[in-house]
Design brief:
The chain is α+β, with helices and mostly antiparallel strands and 275 residues long. The chain has helices at 2-64, 112-144, 152-178, 194-274, and strands at 69-72, 82-85, 90-93, 99-101, 189-192. Strands 4-3-2-1-5 form a five-stranded antiparallel beta sheet. The radius of gyration is 37 Å and the shape is elongated. 22% of the residues are buried. Residues 243-269 have a biased composition (Acidic residues). Residues 12-22 have a biased composition (Basic residues).
Amino acid sequence: MATDSSNNGNNNRHHQHHHHGVRAVATTTTDPRRNEKRAVAARGAAGALALSVLAVVLQSAATATPAWGYFTNPDAGTAAEKGYFGPWRQCKFLLYGRERCGQGVSRFQPVLAVWVAGLAAAAASTLLAILVGLAVLQLAMASSAKKVVISYSTALIGKVALATLATSLAIVAASLFALQTDDRANSFVVSRGEAFYMQIKYIEYLDEYVIARVEILKRLKVRRVHDRRSIKWLKGHLILAEEDDEDNDEEDDEEDDEDDDDNDDDNDDSFAGVL
């Protein structure tokens, strides 16, 4: 009986040592790759944060710049007026480099679409500010490999959605401002200002930003599908390996039982001879 318990203990220790060895090998082989992926994800998140900050700076600058357009009526003679305007402000140039700003300073009056364009641009800036917040969370999760408030994929999808909405609002803002044309009734000629062209450049930049984020989402989806297939394949092989180990253990146990029976028979015979 002491021999049986010692054999069973050795088999169990051998079986546990085999599984612990496999787990140790798996851990040592995956940790370097996991750390490398974490470092790459952190660098990518830092780059995305920088791009997000640049986007909100560009959009905010375009929204806050007062000179969305210029107006002038050169054919008015001594009553000629020059100035600039935007969604929030209208100013007329005076002599000696002075300006006069406010409502009713000029006979030129912007259309309502200009004010609505300013609202759309301000909304785009707000969405981009939220996008920067998500980029900060994404960087924190990529650096720590832990969930921070929301999941990593949710943050990435949210960034794409916010960037898409911000781009749409920027396009709406530029389109609405383009409705402001020459005021022929009062002989005013309108030209586009710096803020309008900044808005156009921002739209081009944000389009590229959205396209890049969508490509990342596609790659992430493909990688997840590949990882799931790899996990299923690995699980299948592990199950087969465990079944082989169990079969080998059962065969070893049967052989040990047969040896024990033979030893018991021999012992019985020996005791019978003594008696």
